Structure prediction request, 98 residues.
Amino acid sequence: MSAQPEEAPAPPAPAAAAQLLAQLRADRRADSWVSAFERDWAKALDDSRHTYSLTPLHDVVRTWQLRVAAAPAVDAYMDSGRDESGFVDLDDVLGARR
Prediction:
């Protein structure tokens, strides 16, 4: 019997963060994405030091892998020229947030 639930995702490869950072640096969004990844990584590293768990680091890698994988679909949507001017701003519906 395993101590972990069966649905727990496998941890990323040991070099996954370095490979991901290299991929982010080569992307056209590097100016914003690299600094955001480094900020997320630094926070996860600090959390990991306090909890003695690698889970925060794994979560950052998985999240950024999903963002990079979704980028082409987001680009295609943005390039499609869809008119979103008919939508209502959420603040108009819910009121100002406190």
